[in-house]
Amino acid sequence: MNIQIKRISLLCAASCVMLGGWRLMAFLDTVEIGSASCIALAEELPAPVQTTVSTVTTVSTETGVVTQPVVMAPAAPNVENSLIINRESEGSKALWYARLYQETQSGNGGEIVDRHFGKQSGDIFLTLPNGGQVRNTTFWNNNDLLAESQIPPQLNLKLDGSPMVLIYHTHTTESFVSPKTGNYDENFNFRTTEPDKNMIMVGDMIAEQLAAAGIGVVHARELHDYPVWTGSYNNSAKTVRDLLAEYPSICIALDIHRDAITDDNTVVAPVAEINGKQAAQIMIISGCDDGTMNMPNYRENFHFACRLQQTAESMFNGLTRPILFDYRKYNQDLTKGSLLIEIGSQGNTLEEAKYTGELFGQALSETIRQLVEESGVE
């Protein structure tokens, strides 16, 4: 059976499930998402590929059209590792092949340039004692912020197998190029619903490393930005709230994205060589409250970001770009330990992104292990 027949079969099966009684959960989410939609590419998705599966409805809000995903499937441990709980609605699964990954690249869109972002200089940058930097664009004085960066994060972390980390994706369909040709296609929008070629792929790699270290993880594999891109943060906020309520042991919530870096027609791919292999550099975004954003835990988030950054740099020198500390919300008001992680850019390859997911998962696992050890909790 070829891949097209498989894809059609999956869509037909999902249609039967939907007709058999799957209901849509209606909600009106009014969460603000800060002054910018994302540091990643902020374009609207083109008109979606038409399917016969009705998986979402939409409502109008002050912030635009908001997707209403179906209820996520009941919790079930990963068949290969009980420490990984994957969550995704049947409606989301039915859209896996709605926007296919573009395998053939003509290279007529422009050039892709690899660039390593090393240590930065200037008044807005401060260097952390154990590796990495912070890009500070807030009211904080650099000296005060440096002192703040050394405060240990207060997270109730344990290594007892209970879920500690929530991984989710506001812009789930963000993707990468492949193979590495040095050019991209003008018709390729760097997005796909195929889970092995978008941010779910990276989240899976992170989850595997956490589980290998004995750390419980919930991976929300839901499509939050398809078929409608507007309202993605409202959609993912609903997912985060629901899963935090269901798994109160979660201490860390990470929104895994990929960045978009362009200069006219040139796309920049941030890269680092780690253990003889090229990886996509990461950037942590930790939001700061300017007094209007209702983010009571933003300093705790920043403490965690700095510890994670320093651990990652000590393990994999050059893997990180400076932490962006800026007036951004990105659902980081919902719990302590909330961060947005940019994995490379649209110019990195699928393999580079997967490798970085593995490396980041190891650095995150080590950070958690150290914090548990320091707390004296087993």
Task: Identify low-pLDDT runs.
Answer: 1-71
SS-based class? alpha/beta
From the alpha carbons, calculate the radius of gyration and give it in angstroms.
Answer: 20 Å
The averaged pLDDT comes out at 83
Give the number of helices.
7
Commentary on this structure:
There is one protein chain. Mean pLDDT is 83; it is low at 1-71. The protein has helices spanning 3-19, 90-94, 142-149, 199-212, 232-246, 298-315, 350-375, and strands at 57-61, 64-68, 84-87, 110-115, 125-127, 133-136, 163-168, 183-184, 216-220, 252-259, 262-263, 266-274, 277-280, 282-287, 323-326, 338-345. The protein is an alpha/beta fold and 378 residues long. A hairpin with a 2-residue loop joins β11 and β12. The chain has seven helices and 16 strands.
